[in-house]
Specification:
The complex is a heterodimer of chains A (about 110) and B (about 110). By secondary structure, chain A is an all-beta fold. Chain A is about 0% helix and about 55% strand. In chain A, about 35% of the residues are buried. In chain B, a hairpin with a 5-residue loop joins β7 (about 55-60) and β8. The relative contact order of chain B is 0.34. The chains are: A mainly beta (about 110), B mainly beta (about 110).
Amino acid sequence: GALVYQYPRRTICKSGTSMRMECQAVGFQATSVAWYRQSPQKTFELIALSTVNSAIKYEQNFTQEKFPISHPNLSFSSMTVLNAYLEDRGLYLCGAREGNSDYTFGSGTRLLVI
Amino acid sequence: AQSVTQPDARVTVSEGASLQLRCKYSSSVTPYLFWYVQYPRQGLQLLLKYYSGDPVVQGVNGFEAEFSKSNSSFHLRKASVHWSDSAVYFCAVRSGTGGYKVVFGSGTRLLVSP
């Protein structure tokens, strides 16, 4: 079956430092990867959508300068939270899909900023 | 633009009782509709989805949902809840063929009391 793994599962970083998180698709080709953030007590906000061989599309309020994303092949994507502050804490969710299929979501990376 | 409204932030039901979680959507094109569940400290799991056809769709663990185009709704139901159903439930919408963005509702926290 199609699975998406995210790591680390949880992480703590000091305010002002950066944190890289990874997303791996298993059992299918991740032609598109979507990164979401769930801030405490809130819903999932789309950060950006990455499609292989296309430019990464960032949603309003999210920028490449703050959340650079790499999607080098059909099984892997990573995102870095640069210069993290308290408002960046939350659950970062990766969803991947092949073609126009449904997204398969990982279990997320929980980021705590201290 | 698409949007999803879950009007009930919290729902409490007794174990064994029936359940309905409400979801209203807005979409300018034929929507694909989803219900996801998030258990404590975990990511998202797909409960069920609707693309077309029979407006009542069956999902895992006895959940079902009914699509109503006239009411722009996609309510989730279960005949008899179990304490393990306590979680946060998210309704989501994606535009049909070619749509890449999944938009989530704000979520409904379900508490099943003994």
